[in-house]
């Protein structure tokens, strides 16, 4: 199996790089390089630039804005955006609900939602997890009772990413009780401006507002907002989660962060020498690069297989493998950044601080901008081992893929 890019693919990569260089707003790229959170406006602005170029939804069918790129070209595009860095299109919208509507939505749902998803005219959030249903998602208790031409929704969701920005939520709710807890779950599209919805912020340990609790009190959802069949929403959920786990590897993100670590390690000193000259640090960085190359090769082998046999979408086992290893590597990069930042990674965020230098002297220092985000970024990415299905769940899926059952 040939894992080298063709001359056509290399030319395509150059085209993507030229576009990013000329089109990514500098303020957005600077925020990403320093691990600052993007605003809603930043993300919308960039996705609309992509959509004007015709590149916001390259993996969709052409009639809905797709590009006819091969799976390898889509991989190159995604990796180059991550490495530049540029924000990806909103994954809840273009990678999750969009492909699901294309595959299982009604014609009316496609016409109504898909063009607005591509241009990020509507912000989407994911209403899956509940206080008692996280990794065991099928244990959810939020209910949707059919009442004529509508559903009446009651219950609670938690850890709902960017619900405070959202115009719409795709939501799992129980519409019946069956022998298996995966039965009797339906997939609904919920207008977040509906009466009876309350969004309550959750401030995470790094001090950011990204996730929320969402409460539903007799929220009315039109029956035409049901995706697929009533009580068969678990099939939709599995489709979505497979897409989430394949994109979570983020090889380009890890490449960009390792490049940044090398730059910083060449200028940051400990005990009178650059950190890059520290043998233990250098060995850890080299080992991480080897693991990242192995992950990249795994992803490329999968893509090459797609090109050969025409299959689309990752198997559950492949998706879980990419999710586990991609998350581990991204977490490891934040650990190295935290070590580089040292005492500058305190929560004073650029304030003057009194510190002891290597020779025992004391003085006032101002934390570099990148260093003030090292600790929040480290804590933030602890979640990667949990969301999209915890590592323990992913390993069970892998085991079934390898040994059956």
Name the CATH homologous superfamily of the largest domain: Butyryl-CoA Dehydrogenase, subunit A, domain 3
Radius of gyration: 23 Å
Major beta sheet, specifics?
4 strands, mixed
Mean pLDDT, rounded to whole units? 88
What's the number of structural domains?
Answer: 3
Query: What is the element string, with H for helices and E for strands?
Result: HHHHHHEEEEEEEEHHEEHHEEHHH
Number of beta strands:
12
What is the CATH architecture term of the largest domain? Up-down Bundle
The parts where pLDDT drops under 50 for at least 5 residues are 349-364
Sheet with the most strands: spatial strand order:
1-4-5-8
What is the overall number of helices?
A: 13
The CATH topology of the largest domain corresponds to: Butyryl-CoA Dehydrogenase, subunit A, domain 3
Shape: globular
Q: What percentage of amino acids are in beta strands?
A: 15-25%
Binned, the helix content reads 40-55%
Keywords:
405 residues; alpha+beta; Butyryl-CoA Dehydrogenase, subunit A, domain 2; Butyryl-CoA Dehydrogenase, subunit A, domain 3; 3 domains; four-stranded mixed β-sheet; four-stranded antiparallel β-sheet; 17% strand; globular
């Amino acid at each position: 199996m040939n894992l080298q890019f063709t001359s056509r693919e290399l030319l395509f990569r150059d085209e993507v790089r030229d576009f990013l260089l000329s089109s990514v707003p500098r303020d957005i790229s600077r925020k990403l390089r320093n691990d600052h959170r993007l605003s809603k406006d930043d993300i919308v602005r960039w996705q609309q630039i992509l959509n004007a170029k015709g590149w916001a939804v390259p993996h969709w069918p052409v009639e809905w804005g797709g590009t006819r790129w091969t799976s390898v070209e889509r991989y190159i595009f995604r990796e180059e955006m991550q490495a530049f860095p540029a924000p990806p299109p909103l994954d809840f919208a273009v990678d999750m609900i969009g492909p699901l509507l294309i595959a299982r939505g009604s014609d009316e749902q496609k016409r109504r939602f898909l063009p607005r998803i591509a241009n990020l005219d509507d912000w989407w959030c994911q209403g899956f997890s509940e206080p008692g249903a996280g990794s065991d998602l099928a244990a959810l208790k939020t209910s949707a009772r059919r009442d004529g031409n509508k559903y009446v929704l009651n219950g609670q969701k938690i850890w709902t990413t960017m619900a405070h920005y959202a115009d719409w939520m795709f939501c799992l709710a129980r519409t019946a009780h069956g022998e298996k807890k995966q039965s009797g779950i339906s997939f609904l599209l919920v207008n977040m401006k509906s009466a009876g919805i309350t969004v309550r912020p959750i401030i995470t340990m790094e001090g950011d507002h990204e996730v929320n609790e969402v409460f539903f009190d007799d929220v009315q959802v039109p029956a035409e907002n049901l995706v697929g069949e009533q009580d068969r929403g678990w099939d939709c959920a599995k489709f979505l989660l497979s897409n989430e786990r394949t994109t979570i590897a983020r090889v380009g993100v890890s490449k960009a962060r390792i490049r940044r670590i090398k730059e910083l390690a060449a200028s940051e000193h400990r005990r009178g020498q650059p950190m890059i000259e520290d043998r233990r640090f250098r060995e850890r960085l080299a080992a991480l690069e080897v693991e990242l190359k192995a992950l990249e090769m795994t992803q490329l082998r999968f893509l090459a297989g797609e090109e050969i046999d025409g299959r689309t979408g990752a198997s559950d086992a492949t998706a879980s493998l990419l999710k586990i290893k991609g998350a581990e590597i991204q977490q490891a990069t934040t650990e190295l950044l935290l070590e580089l930042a040292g005492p500058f990674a305190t929560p004073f965020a650029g304030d003057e601080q009194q510190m002891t230098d290597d020779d025992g002297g004391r003085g006032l220092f101002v934390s570099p901008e990148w260093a003030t985000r090292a600790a929040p970024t480290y804590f933030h990415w602890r979640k990667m081992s949990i969301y999209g299905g915890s590592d323990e769940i992913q390993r069970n899926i892998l085991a079934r893929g390898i040994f059956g059952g």
